[in-house]
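We treat protein structure as text, and this decision shapes the records that our systems exchange. Below, we set out a record of this kind in full and without editing:

***
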Amino acid sequence: MAFGVKTNEREGVRSQVRYVRVSAYKAREVLDLIRGLPVARALEVLELAERDVARTVLKGLESAIANAEHNNSIPADELFVSSCYADEGPTLKRWRPRARGRATRIRKRTCHITIIVGRLSADELDALRAREASGARAGGGATAAEARRRRVARSRQAKAERRAEEHDHDHDHEDAEADEVVMAEADLEVQADDVAADELEPADEVDEVDEDEPVAEADDDGDHEAEADEAEGKDD
């Protein structure tokens, strides 16, 4: 069976995050904030969003930007969020005990988040640059786009540093745990040696007592013989 070209496929570069443990309704509330925005502005909005799902959407947007830059050679400054949506995923069923032996179903929703970025047209790109230039003249400093890019770069660098610190911290914990295990094994070996030494000491004492007993018996025999000789001398 031959498959033709998909006619319902949206144009642009996409990325998809599947089986996100959040309902599609909650994800759509965040996706509505970035739809149609330039990627720099969309990244800024997601960085400041207070919803937990915004972190997942941010990762998906960064993946879409990377795909456009590396696979299609499109600069990130010329991209915008052309489409983003969340589809329903499988629902996990769980149960909660209730009164009188009943049970209530708990539905744990999941969703699939798709983000598509496209290239701005020439007219839209010129209007965006003119707006940024006018804002720079009014502010008397660097352009707003450059400021946003610097903020996004600093944010990414800070996140990478935090991840590296967490990784090093985990390694430090592993090394400390390994040292504790080695010290515990050494303590166990020392205790085992002490117990073995304590077990051997009573045996030595018993041996010494056994060696002394024959000597005492021999002395007693000598005393009896001397008494017998003295008795014989008196009789004589």
Q: What stands out?
A: The mean pLDDT is 79. The radius of gyration is 43 Å.
